[in-house]
Amino acid sequence: MLDKLVSSVTALADEFQEVMLEGGRFEFLLDGLGNTFIITFGALAIGIVLGIFVAAIRTSYDKNKESLKLRGGIGYVILAVMNTICKFYLTITRGTPVVVQLMISYFIIFSLADNGIPVAIFAFGINSGAYVAEIFRAGIMSVDHGQFEAGRSLGFNYFQTMRFIVIPQMFKAVLPTLCNEFIALLKETSVAGYVGVIDLTKAGNTIAGRTFEYFIPLITVAVIYLVLVMILSWLVGILERRLRKSDR
């Protein structure tokens, strides 16, 4: 029994060396992993900026709708139109698969692009922005209304109150959820190969296609994703524990 196990492990190690190490094929995975990180961090940056903007518009409309409606004027009309645009964006983005959005971005919107990485960053950023916006909106709405009143009593207008009082508290509340969105985004980038980007998954598939061995490359890719997610989940757990301690 032990001899069979040893021989199986030895055969697997030999196959790994033949498939991944000979000819420097593992370098495909390193390049793909680098592109995966570039796309993930770039898309997350776009998603955070876009999410803050959309969440601010939607919460401003929800919290001030009645008073603005009574006051009337162009301000209410502009905010209502922007809120409608934001709701349309959220509905379309969250209601369609990210791979379809990626292909539309590459083959239609940026059909002349010769580099798929910026297009992938754009597509995943737009997609992530919709989910980040709802995370931020829930965080803003969870802040006690007395915080808004405290800001007004200090002489802040609505936007200053949001900037200096509400948003810092909101970030603390939603940071663990935002980190989980980052983990989800990391895994979602595995479809970037549809537009010719050599990400981690595409690199594994390329190695498999060249060696006609699919088990080792794809299992290696799966293990890398698993290790990355476990590390990030561990860091999120540490962050959540520290935030709970700071609340005490």
Structure characterization notes:
By secondary structure, this protein is mainly alpha-helical. The protein has a single domain, classed as MetI-like (MetI-like fold). It is built from nine helices and no strands. Helix 2 runs antiparallel to helix 3 (74-95), helix 2 runs antiparallel to helix 8 and helix 5 (116-142) crosses helix 7 (158-188). The N and C termini lie far apart (55 Å). The mean pLDDT is 85.
The figure for the number of domains is 1
Q: Determine the CATH superfamily.
A: MetI-like
Helix share, percent: over 70%
Q: Overall pLDDT, averaged?
A: 85
Structural class: mainly alpha
H-E order? HHHHHHHHH
Number of helices: 9
Shape: elongated
Please state the second-level CATH architecture. Orthogonal Bundle
Could you tell me the strand content as a percent range? under 5%
Low-confidence stretches: none
Give the number of DSSP strands. 0
CATH class: Mainly Alpha
CATH topology: MetI-like fold
Largest sheet: none
Radius of gyration (CA) equals 23 Å
Q: Separation of termini?
A: 55 Å
